[in-house]
Design a protein that fits this description.
Strand content: 35-45%
Largest sheet: 6 strands, antiparallel
Order of helices and strands: EEEEEEEEEEEEE
Radius of gyration: 17 Å
Number of helices: 0
Structural class: mainly beta
Number of strands: 13
Shape: globular
Number of domains: 2
């Protein structure tokens, strides 16, 4: 059996860019509205909305993200000092809150595949090149990590599905043709920078 074992989904983690260029950690800062009433976890998809702020993109079979949330900073309303956090706690009141987002349309991400909710499941190389839907599980407020995954059984040619499968991750395979992690990108027509429809 391969090592390490993937026991649960963890969101989308940037690994490199199309063409093999490394992901150097570049992010763009977007404002989060003070009091925004939803958790944002490291690895969640986010989208730009009216007023130029980001919110969680909760789409499954359709989504229009600007990128992947990788953390945030804000002045803690209780402690009164600048806090750099793995996740945005719902309802936080902070006028200086910013999200750090991997917004490159050519970015590739590692993500776990599931058969439903958080049940990690293996799928074959036949998924490469297809489009899949997302599974929007709730993240972990202790670690700050996302639990978003892809639904392997949703593999199709449907151009409105938000995620394109680029490759498999052989290191965590559970069989000769059973992969529980895939390299993916946000589908070109779904990424807000490539979508002709504005906010």
């Amino acid at each position: 059996m391969a090592y390490p074992t993937v026991s649960a989904p963890y969101g989308l983690k940037p690994v490199n860019l199309i063409g093999g260029l490394p992901f150097a950690g570049a992010t763009r800062q977007f404002k989060i509205a003070s009091g925004y009433a939803a958790n944002l976890f490291n690895g969640d998809l986010v989208k730009l909305v009216t007023a130029g702020v980001v919110e969680k993109d909760t789409g499954t079979t359709a989504a229009t993200p600007v990128g992947v949330f990788l953390g945030c900073s804000y002045t803690d309303p209780t402690l009164k000092y600048k806090l750099f956090s793995q996740y945005w706690p719902t309802g936080t009141v902070a006028s200086d809150a910013v999200a750090y987002v991997c917004d490159d349309p050519n970015a590739l991400f590692k993500v776990a595949s599931v058969s439903g909710t958080t049940v990690v499941a293996g799928y074959g190389r036949a998924l490469i090149g297809s489009n899949v839907s997302l599974v929007q599980n709730a993240g972990d407020t202790v670690t700050g990590n996302s639990a978003v995954a892809i639904l392997g059984s949703s593999s199709a040619t449907t151009n409105s599905l938000p995620i394109r499968i680029i490759d498999v991750v052989p290191d965590t395979a559970t069989g000769a043709d059973a992969f529980v992690e895939f390299i993916v990108k946000i589908n070109a027509g779904m990424h807000q920078y490539n979508n002709a429809t504005g906010v």
